[in-house]
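Data deposition worksheet. Section B asks for the primary sequence of the deposited chain exactly as it was used as input, without tags or linkers unless they were present during the calculation. Section C holds the resulting structure in token form. Section D is free text for depositor observations; keep each observation to a single sentence. Incomplete worksheets are returned to the depositor.
Section A, Depositor: J.P.
Section B:
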Amino acid sequence: MSGDNFEALRGDENKKILSWEERIAAVRGEEWLEENFQRRLAEVCARYPEMAENIKRSLETPQLGPYHNEGLKMISHLKLILAVLEDIKDGKFHESIDPELAREMREAVASEDPNRPGQSVVNQFFIDYTFFHDIAKPDCMSLRFEGEKGAKAITWQEWLEIEKGGQPYKFGGKVIKSIGYYHPGLTKKDSGKKHGNAAADMVRQKGVRLPPKMSMAIRKHEIAYQFESANVDTYERNFAERGLGGDQWLSVFIASYSDTMASLKDDGQPNMDHFKNFLNARKNYVLLQEMTKNITDNAVLNSHALFNLRKANKVLTREDVEIALAEARVQAAAEAVEPQPK
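Section C:
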């Protein structure tokens, strides 16, 4: 397998854009999508028989609203994730992924095929992750209604009763506008029930011991949605301060990428905005770390110039950092000679 041939996946310049699912089906075939999914499902259920019932239940989770238009049920989302992983293995990436990062992702996802020397398959780690990361969605469903704020948390049994009534789905006589997978907290201090955390907890409670980096990927697979901008502080808070680097960071990043690519808008395309912010925040963090690692003056490190740069919603250049550091040093020097109040 060559590690240097990467294909960027772009839309047609003439706006004749296939949906992501149509593109995958056109390249790999509808039959392949179904066969690949069923084969992987059978493998994972055989590997984790104690999780099989919950895995199969999760496939029936309804999808309604702006974020999951790949199909009416979650099975369609998982089919696409598996296809995205195949794309990564084959060196096909969204155009936002640069060659160096693409190489790292491919090396993590692709494994040597034990039955075909010289050929590769998707690493079992990411196959298992795919079927575990949303396994608790049925237990975290919440409904939104037209013209109303907030969400109504429901149980899986309540959903099964709603489903019997057919579309448009209704609850309490009101038409359901969208379905989310988060149970709001009951108090301000209660962070609520997030389906990623609930999934990792469910697997652990069933006695399955996952690698720590897989548990982290499950818990943080929606991390990109925290990035409203390329804010370095957001990245640092979620990764650097928790000591998540190397393999752990890459696993979370691939989880976020595959989940984003397999979550389609109503035009059939993935919304990459938050993911790009996540990616750019990481780039900015790495650059700032590199260019400030030898600075010991806290007045410079804590300057307004660097503070503003960390929150800049763009990809930083070395020149940006150099200018900010020059301003910070001038300000620090000026403050150092100012007479101190008695």
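Section D:
The radius of gyration is 23 Å.
The first strand starts at residue 7 and ends at 9.
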